[in-house]
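Final paragraph of the annual report: two paired records, presented back to back.
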Amino acid sequence: MSTDLSPQEPQQEPQQEPREESRQGGELTVGELLRWAWRQLTSMRTALILLLVLALAAVPGSVIPQQGVDALKTTQWQERHPDLTPVYERLGLFDVYDTPWFAAIYVLLMISLIGCIIPRTLVYLRAIKAPPPRAPRNLTRLPDHASYRTDEDTDAVLARAREVLRGRRYRVRPPDDGDAAVSSERGYLREVGNLVFHLSVIVVLVGFAVGGLFGYKGGVILPVGTPFSNTLTQYDDFVPGDLFTGEDMEPFCFTVDDFDVEWLKDGPRAGMSQGFSADTRYQEDCTGADATEEQRYDLRVNHPLAIGDTEVFLIGHGYAPVITVRDGEGEVAYTGPTVFLPQDQTLFSFGVVKATGARPVQVGLEGVFYPTFVNVEGDPANLMGELNNPLLSLLVYAGDLGLDGGAQSVYVLDKDNAEQVTTPDGKPLRLDLQEGETAELPDGLGSVTFEGVEEWNRLQISRTPGKLVALAGVVLALIGLLGSLFIRPRRVWVRARRVDGGTLVEVAALDRSGGGDVTTEIDEVVAALRGDTSSSTRDEEST
């Protein structure tokens, strides 16, 4: 055999294509990033955090007056806090529940809860179909156990064990060949309670969402005896849901005929009001041939009048002094009850009058109303809210009241182009009038008469179609909470084996929720197993 020793040309290695630069540690693709974000969003920890954030986000809605709940209180708050008002308006704190940031928390919580519940439900369904686990090899190593001896055959003991445990509402594992033990478990509904509780949160959120989308809230101040018809033009403020249409408004009408207040006469809260009752006359349909018969209702706080799906709430009251303004020509330029807004619990109130029809110039009045006026060392004060000594104190302005410039609040007097009327010595003219008194205005401006006092009621009218859904969610939450608190998942095992010519029966139990005392359960199972057929004395061991 010959060997070729001639030099060989070196073989060229094939050129390799340049490899893509490997990803650095922790770098994620778009798909991996989305999967990671979804897992974080649908974790139970995130759901709890979002629930807490939603509760915190709702706090400003209960502390700061809301435009959709009580526009009057909101306006008063804004007038008292002119520096904070622009900041709060930019943050949407006067209408918290309709802000984009509150809706974002709401939607994220819904997604998180759904993402939590669906996987847990699938896991639970698989678990409930699975048989109880096999008995441990050595039951005496469990914290709670007991044993006794009997002359019965092992098959008879195990058969009775299955019967006893089924009678105690345990699920029993089918018999296994070669395994002389019975495995059982109960308390599967505890997990159902947890799932129902989480599901109830979704139901409550859906109920609120339905009410916010299809319902509405409105407010109106009505002097006693003034009729109200459920049309948009009758409301002082109206906040509809995003999917609300005017066709959803029910055609009812009502009138508050009388209003009674119970005043405290003695004690530390003497002079305060404690009970309110508005005698109300209403019709469910008050127009045309479909008009229904009038009905009466005693409208009180926390006892709303329900008309179809709409509810009428009594949320406030105050006084409306009846004021008549005559101009310089003797003609009536303004007359009627004028709503004055309470400034404190004694119903010390503020209000304005705009006599725009007065001639030769418009006349404006701005002042306060004292239901029970007292003079304390020369200073005026209001003693209580009951009408015992009513006094009307007004400042007078003459000139252009600015109504030609557009809409303005009936509780604000535009004084930019009006001059304050003064006395001959140059001091502001103040009219202090009691019921029935008339004051003449200087410079031929006319006169002002305090005719009397009427009461008004602040009413909130709302339609919330999702309230029954929210109520069902609350009931589900209670059921789920009770189930998760009082249902205790437990496992019980019974093993029987022949020892020294007899049968040794071992019973052990485990409380899966932790902290449960299963000693009583073991004692009752042992007593049921032994019955009256045992021929030996029970030898129980427990730790």
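The closing record of the year follows.
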Amino acid sequence: MKRYLGNYFTKGCALVMTVAVAAGALTGCGKTEIQEKAETGSVTSEAAEPSTDEELITLTVRITAPDPIPGIQDNRVMKAVEDKFGVLVDYSHSDDSINATSLAAGDLPDIIQVYSTEIDTYIEGGHVIALDDLVSQYGQDIIKNASDSLEFSKNYITPEKFKGTLYGLIGGNYLVKDDVAPQYNYVYGPMVPWNFYAEAGYPEFKTTEEYLDVLEEIQTAHPKTEDGKSVYAFCGWNDWGIWPFIVPYCFSRGYMNGDFYIFDAEGNLQPMFGEEAVLCKESFKMYNQAYQRGIYDPESFTMKYTDYETKRKNNQVLAPQAGGDGYFLIPGSAPVVWEGYGSILAGSCDRVLMISKNCKYPEKAMELINYLYTLEGANLFYDGIEGIDWAMEDGKRELTSETIQERLNNPNYPLETGVGIYHSLVGLSPNTKHEDGNYIDLMTSEKAMKERVTEVDKGFCDHYQVSYPGEAFQKAAEEGKCNIQFFNTTWQALMPDMPDDIKLIKGKIENYSLDFVAKLILSETDEEFEKNWETGNKELEEMGFTEFYRWNQEANQKALEALKSLK
């Protein structure tokens, strides 16, 4: 049992991650000064003595996140690791082709991160080693800070044949359960461009019709960009399946998306198609109403995501799927504000770190991994180095004001410093509480939130009399105007793999669904929409959609029952 979030949500993970860590870049000093600080020992480290070049060993690491440039990592974060452990990290990206080739050749890196769905191949092929003894000897912080996810990995990530043995380590663990860092802003739902919304007089809206009225008014007032390009309220793209056509609406109604179903925070499912597909049909209908009004971009089904991004950055989209500079949700305009997702119990259990049998230094590898599960290690990887990036203020870690502005304004900061680009390696969630009262990610501290406010955001904050945008939604939630919802998705990891016959049906649905949704949204009349809905669902039924959905329902129910025994 090791399946995690559905296909279409993982398609959107890049977008979610962009929103979540968009401010994760900074450079406080030039490279020479950084090197000088490291060489003089002012870089925070508990190592007894800095390592010499002769003592250094190299650990090859392949992880799923594509952010760092491959090769020996040369930045101040990894310089601190080098000083502490005498280790150089030789990083590479993971993808299906590279993984398949290295498996066939038996040529794996020392440390490898794979998706939980792929772990069977590595274990059954004898490509990785069991970690129980190494964790017992060199992983005391892993045991201390991630004991729940260790048990989860042994019993639910490890395949049945090897159940009870630890092979994969799960990152992103929460030290304080059910205490998730507040967001600087919330970006899924009925968006508006703030400057034009203010110009229109801040019109209130609650219903879909009222929302479309507001966007139509804005588009009528601003039909073209300064360079003469057409502006539309909504726009989509065709290389993420149907993700762009369901997520904003469903998220703002308290649901996330899985494999052709959506689910609420309790794990209850609703199909994307068929008679029971209430919310997804409403989403398709909203976009169809926009199309009939002339405020939906007719090129939405012929564009790639990169084309959409070009239009969005050129101000040709009034209501993007996931925000962006100058775009805002309106507090109280939708019943639910989506805060994020993850497993409170078992961290980022969709992927695991393993040590390959080729590793010549498994003890050193485990020492390094253990460090990633400490507050010091998480602080280094997410926030940088004391005295350069952050300092103690009133007993708490705080980013310097200069650092906050660098993270906001220097897009090269992560690559230059190493801060924030190794997030998929770190054993603790950036959104979990640190012992000093702030969260691990210091961009979520009260100081940082206030200093992050840009000129673009200031108008929104002034209007709602808040110090940063997210505070407006927190106030609205306290007043009962909306519910801020974090999704604890542990149960998804307890779902079994799909049998081959269900996978076959899924493939048919995937091949058909985008064309079906295109016909729905581009229907010329309400009658045509209903006719297309009926015809498309009939064809999906013939493909086996009901059988596919019922399998997911039953598997979901078993996963929810299994979760009860873990709480």
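The two ends are 17 Å apart (CA to CA). This concludes the annual technical report; the extension proposal builds directly on these records.
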